[in-house]
Design a protein that fits this description.
Radius of gyration: 18 Å
Number of helices: 11
Order of helices and strands: EEHHHEEEHEHEHEHHEHEHEH
Shape: globular
Bound molecules: iron/sulfur cluster
Mean pLDDT: 92
Strand content: 5-15%
Largest sheet: 7 strands, parallel
Number of strands: 11
Helix content: 25-40%
Length: 320
């Protein structure tokens, strides 16, 4: 059966103390084209067990991702390292906000062990923001990449990192560990940063992606935005141009969904044909790969997309 997950939480725990006194934002009814699979399969239960047994967090659960039923059935989980508490307070994000605990030095090995148990050919690792750490957590990312390489040498690794704002040397540390894909999401257009992503700076995020290519031009880079937050079409075009100027290979565009009434409202549900138009334009602007659909998320189908990304680069090289 196909159902629509209602991610609007009735949980009374204060995951977002900074948002508690905000007025409730209106909650728009989801349109027919937002349909997701219920998380009830045997594969889902098995993935959940492996995640729990290894004491890990996933962004699939923490962010209330609508694709969890589909992904976990195939044992595709995205691990969220460095704890479940984020030092930022983005208006779109359901990850808990607060002061995080100390880093768990055994976590990289447990992530590698869970990757092996899930039998993943491609793994995506993301994290909370750790502005409290001198290196923003870059060393822990690098340690996790190395642990996975040692335990699962054939598994390809994609990292989805924070912006490492004001953390000199952090991007270099992560890139030196040689992930196969370096992803950092812009999340939204520049005009929405102050309301949607107030702790971040658009230029710094573009510069991070550009820096990865300077360090290693062969490393695939990837970035994504959500639409439906009130952005204009021309602003999405501008983001595409800025990402191409930074040499980014892979663009993802998905519909923003509101986690709770205290989060940013959905200004608009963008219809599937507009996603298709964005995809066509993005390919014309030179991206090697584009995924644009209402339920596109950075890590959705990441394994299949990585294979397509490599094939697209080979084809581009052959064309000369
Ligand atoms: S799309 Fe990504 S975050 Fe969502 S369930 Fe799938 S792997 Fe997890």
């Amino acid at each position: 059966m196909v159902v629509v997950l209602d991610a609007i939480s009735s949980d009374k725990r204060s995951r977002h103390p900074e948002k508690a006194h905000r007025a409730d934002a209106p909650v728009a009814k989801k349109p027919d084209w937002i349909r997701v699979k219920a998380p009830v399969s045997k594969g889902y239960a098995e993935t959940q067990r492996i995640v729990r047994d290894n004491g890990l967090h996933t962004v699939c659960e923490e962010a209330g991702c609508p694709n969890i039923g589909e992904c976990w059935e195939k044992k595709h989980a995205t691990f969220m390292i460095m704890g479940d508490t984020c030092t930022r307070a983005c208006a779109f994000c359901n990850v808990k906000t607060g002061l995080p605990s100390a880093l768990d030095v055994a976590e990289p090995v447990r992530v590698a062990e869970a990757t092996a148990k899930l039998g993943l050919a491609h793994i995506v690792i993301t994290s909370v923001d750790r502005d409290d750490l001198d290196d923003g957590g870059a060393g822990h990312f690098a340690a996790t990449i190395r642990a996975i390489r040692a335990r699962c040498p054939t598994t390809t690794i994609e990292v989805l990192t924070p912006d490492f704002l004001r953390k000199d040397g952090a991007v270099e540390t992560v890139a030196a560990a040689k992930p196969d894909v370096f992803n950092h999401n812009l999340e939204t257009v520049p005009s929405k940063y102050l309301t949607v992503r107030p702790g971040a700076r658009y230029f710094a995020s573009i510069r991070l992606l550009q820096r990865v290519k300077e360090i290693d031009p062969t490393m695939f880079t990837k970035s994504g935005i959500m639409v439906g937050l009130g952005e204009e079409r021309n602003e999405v075009m501008q983001v595409m141009d800025d990402l191409r100027a930074a040499g980014v290979d892979f663009l993802t565009i998905g519909q923003y969904l509101q986690p709770t009434r205290k989060h940013h409202e959905v200004v608009r549900f963008v219809p599937p044909e507009e996603f298709k138009a964005y995809e066509t334009i993005a390919y014309a602007k030179g991206f090697l790969m584009v995924s644009a659909s209402p339920l596109t998320r950075s890590s959705h189908h990441a394994g299949e997309d990585f294979a397509r990304l490599k094939a697209a680069r080979h084809a581009a090289h052959r064309r000369g």
